[in-house]
Specification:
- This protein is α/β, with parallel strands linked by helices.
- 35% of the residues lie in helices and 19% in strands.
- Strand 3, helix 2 (52-65) and strand 4 form a beta-alpha-beta unit.
- Residues 1-9, 16-26, 32-40 and 412-421 have low confidence and may be disordered.
Length: 426
């Protein structure tokens, strides 16, 4: 019987093949999870996904509990979306868009510092509005330059109050912004960008999408204000390599876990992929937004003055990022990436709406019923987490696993053999 074979996906930058996933219904996976028992051999943990969530747990389980871990990823590399590599011209780039590390947690920063040195970096963003590039988040300079004013910080507060449309109740993302800065600034900076990013109007999105967007009355032009802001000195991939450099950790790339879940013995699974895919979309598909990345390398040292420039109203892309600002690399060429949000493709962002949250709760209940599968990460918990939040979630999951092991120790080869012997005697 003839027919076209499914075409392998490719890394968006280096072109490495990512093999198509084997079709397997979720009921067989759940059966495998319910009976998972490797006997006297095999892995203690099968971890699905080699991004932050899976890699942190792999390292903790191997190093602290001396567990045998099999880490599986369908992509041809470790690091998940934070993976970085050198392009054909030798410029260090992020194939899946810029990943800027920032956190207020000393525990998370100190943990990652075991695997990397850091280059201090404070990200700055400009927005292309009304023919000008002005600081984002909106600050004192943004308003003064946009409107030809000369406000002070104290006057800025009064000015914002005068243009704000105060809302008695906040229902959605539009309400959040117009309540703070009024409709004109909302239209200039947020409405168009949000419609491109999410494929819907801010009035259709949960208030959480824009609730954390600050407005400053001073001249602070940093995009983040976290206590710790830095980039891994030699890149994210090098950091992940050091994190996973343990003899108890075995790594399988270009492998969909469904291909090996019934073939490799394991006791407990850690899953960091889309939770609806794990259950074969039995309650329906959870909506995600994807991004098409267009990378360009230019024969010039610098393309733009800051790491990222947003385009809220013009063009099909949302932003352009230049990696040399972010990595600190010196090179005669520069590489930039244009981001085009889209509905189809790899899932990147859970879509924050009340009906989507209700659908996720159905999958969450299914997940809670599985004793030996732990769900971690942005996709597995359907939450819009930053990198540091995923690390924190994984460290918290490790603590829970430790507690569970103290309460119910995992069977050892000796204890399992004793149990079989006792059963035979009886």
């Amino acid at each position: 019987m003839s027919g076209k074979q499914p075409r392998a996906a490719r890394c968006p930058l280096c072109g490495s093949n990512i093999e198509p996933a084997m079709e397997k219904r979720s009921d067989s996976l759940i059966q495998a999870a319910s009976r998972a028992d490797p006997g006297l051999q095999g892995f203690d943990y099968l971890i699905v996904g080699a991004g932050f969530a899976g890699s942190v747990l792999a390292e903790r389980l191997a190093r602290e509990l001396d567990c045998k871990v099999l880490l599986v990823d369908k992509r041809p590399h470790i690091g998940g979306n934070a993976h970085d590599c050198y392009d054909d011209h030798g410029v260090l780039v992020h194939p899946y868009g810029p990943h800027i590390f920032h956190t207020n947690s000393a525990e998370i920063f100190e943990y990652l510092s075991r695997f990397t040195q850091w280059r201090p970096y404070q990200h700055r963003v400009l927005a292309s509005v009304d023919g000008q590039r002005v600081p984002l988040p909106i600050n004192l300079d943004t308003i003064n330059r946009l409107y030809g004013l000369n406000l002070t910080s104290f006057e800025m507060e009064s000015w914002l109050d005068s243009v704000a449309e105060k809302k008695a109740e906040i229902h959605n993302s539009e309400d959040v912004i117009v309540n703070k800065i009024g409709r004109e600034l909302y239209n200039k900076f947020f409405r168009g960008y949000t419609r491109k990013q999410w494929g819907m109007d801010p009035s259709e999105l949960d208030a959480s999408v824009t609730a954390r967007v600050p407005t400053r009355t001073n001249r602070d032009d940093r995009y983040f204000t976290d206590t710790y802001q830095a980039m891994p000195l030699h890149g994210y991939t090098r950091m992940f390599e050091r994190m996973l450099a343990h003899p108890n950790i075995k790594i399988m790339l270009n492998t969909d876990y469904r291909e090996i879940v019934d073939l490799v013995p394991w006791k407990h699974m850690v899953y960091s992929g889309p939770i609806d895919a794990f259950f074969n979309h039995k309650h329906g598909k959870l909506p995600y937004r994807s991004i098409r990345f267009e990378h360009r390398t230019l024969a010039q040292e610098e393309f733009q003055p800051v790491g990222t420039v947003n385009y809220p109203n013009d063009y099909g892309y949302t932003r352009i990022s230049e990696f040399k600002h972010i990595t600190g690399q010196r090179h005669a060429h520069t590489s930039v990436v244009y981001e085009y949000p889209c509905a189809e493709g790899d899932p990147y962002y859970p879509v924050p709406r009340a009906d989507n949250t209700a659908l996720y709760r159905l999958y969450e209940a299914e997940a809670d019923a599985l004793d030996n599968v732990t769900f971690v990460g942005r996709l597995a918990t359907y939450k819009y987490y930053n990198m540091d939040q995923v690390v924190g979630q994984s460290l918290a999951a490790f603590k829970r696993i430790c507690q569970q092991r103290r309460e119910t120790p995992m069977p050892t080869a000796t204890s399992m053999l004793d149990a079989v012997t006792q059963e035979c005697r009886s």
